[in-house]
Structure to design on (440 residues):
């Protein structure tokens, strides 16, 4: 059985391990609880650029040293940036944990930010931004954020724009790193065949800490009893993004119309998260969902169609995405509207609700077979709401959802007349998505 141990270090950094001794691998992660929503308009893309730049070396490791420490024994290293978090992670065999941990910590907290590296990596990131503009799926997602939230940071591209990336400096990168060292909530996590005491001691040594904080199995997220009694770092101050029903259409040299429709949902901490997950499962998650069966199997309007709930710290979105022949967009939106209206009228039958519960719970349990999924869940528990990210409690909350909860959430959140939209379309596309949603 997995043993989870958690410590809060004297500098406010969380350290956690989940021991799975039957494995020979370990997933390691350094999580910074900051992302694109914490940026100003002038420094858009800073968190994402920081993610890139830490791979360019430290005073004691060059870029090839960094990747070799992971790949030499068959492992891997990578990173990602979201609206609210940056993660640096890798997977190695258990005998390589110490060296891999040292590399991750040195990357994140001691990158050198050489001027020539910054110049070259700006070009790389700008090519990444341009690649999004060439991908209808990715571009429509970015445009939908802009449509829903306008100029607020939540609605801006995670990678920034060519202009903001060109303006980023070494000083801005160093400030970002200094905040990670001192004030940004941080978690260092390992899941797999790992010894907690040795792992925590190595993290503590890296930060130059001498005290000891007692670790406990399945610990609640509270500081252990010590003389110093360390305090967790406060979450970053964030303003709520105001949703508005804007509609953005971007012509491109494409043959299909790629469309995203959606409206406001709830934040991660809301009790409505669980009914919305179940509603999403029945409506647009997979080939058995209502949208797939109607729009693809029955009418042949789309190749794929999906719904997508997104839960952030202060707001949320519920969206539906599809791609189709431009001439079929109106019919596709009409059929989507019919399914939403059906859900608002009747919700889910008892059988459908149970099937959705079994599906969602099964997905969670299957995720336990992935050390990466376990690590992500542990990071959410450490940096998010500690009351929520407990497997037993999450399963109980899913089981507790009623047909009435589903119906209430469907009537509150599935209101297409109040939704925003974004589409990447062929040149000459004339359909008014806002008008279509008003009729849906």
């Amino acid at each position: 059985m997995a043993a989870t141990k958690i410590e809060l270090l004297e500098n406010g950094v969380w350290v956690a391990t989940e021991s799975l001794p039957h494995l020979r691998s370990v997933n390691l992660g350094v999580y910074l609880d900051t992302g694109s929503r914490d940026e100003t308009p002038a420094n858009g893309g800073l968190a994402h650029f920081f993610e890139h730049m830490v791979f360019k070396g430290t005073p004691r490791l060059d870029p090839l040293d960094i990747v070799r420490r992971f790949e030499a024994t068959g492992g891997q290293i990578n990173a990602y940036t979201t609206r609210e978090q940056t993660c640096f992670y890798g997977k190695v065999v258990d005998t390589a944990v110490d060296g891999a941990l040292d590399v991750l910590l040195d990357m994140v907290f001691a990158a050198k930010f050489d001027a020539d590296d910054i110049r070259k990596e700006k070009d790389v990131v700008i090519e990444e931004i341009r690649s999004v503009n060439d991908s209808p799926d990715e571009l429509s997602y970015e445009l939908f954020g802009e449509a829903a939230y306008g100029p607020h940071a939540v609605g801006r591209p995670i990678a920034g724009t060519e202009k903001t990336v060109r303006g980023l400096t070494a000083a801005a990168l160093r400030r970002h790193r200094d905040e990670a060292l001192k004030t940004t909530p941080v978690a260092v996590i390992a899941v797999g065949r790992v010894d907690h005491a040795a792992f925590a001691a190595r993290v503590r040594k890296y930060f130059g800490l001498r005290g000891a904080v007692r670790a406990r199995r399945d610990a609640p997220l509270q500081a252990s009893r010590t003389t110093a009694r360390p305090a967790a770092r406060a979450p970053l101050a964030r303003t709520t993004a105001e949703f508005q029903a804007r509609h953005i259409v971007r012509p491109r040299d494409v043959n299909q119309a790629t469309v995203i429709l959606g409206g406001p949902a709830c934040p991660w901490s809301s009790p409505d998260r669980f009914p919305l997950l179940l509603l999403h499962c029945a409506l647009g998650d997979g080939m058995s969902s209502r949208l797939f069966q109607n729009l693809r199997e029955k009418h042949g309007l789309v190749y794929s169609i999906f719904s997508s709930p997104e839960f952030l710290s202060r707001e949320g979105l519920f969206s539906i995405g599809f791609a189709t022949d431009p001439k079929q967009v109106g019919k596709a939106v009409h059929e989507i509207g019919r399914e939403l209206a059906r859900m608002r009228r009747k919700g889910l039958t008892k059988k459908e609700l149970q099937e959705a519960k079994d599906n969602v719970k099964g997905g969670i349990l299957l995720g336990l077979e992935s050390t990466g999924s376990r690590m992500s869940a542990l990071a959410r528990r450490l940096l998010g709401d500690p009351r929520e990210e407990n497997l037993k409690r999450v399963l109980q909350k899913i089981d507790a959802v009623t047909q009435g909860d589903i119906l209430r959430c469907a009537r509150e959140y599935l209101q297409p007349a109040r939704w925003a939209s974004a589409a990447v379309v062929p040149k000459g596309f004339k359909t008014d998505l806002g008008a279509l949603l008003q009729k849906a």
Summary: The chain has two domains: 3-217, 247-439. Residues 247-439 form a domain with the Cytochrome Bc1 Complex; Chain A, domain 1 fold (CATH 3.30.830.10).
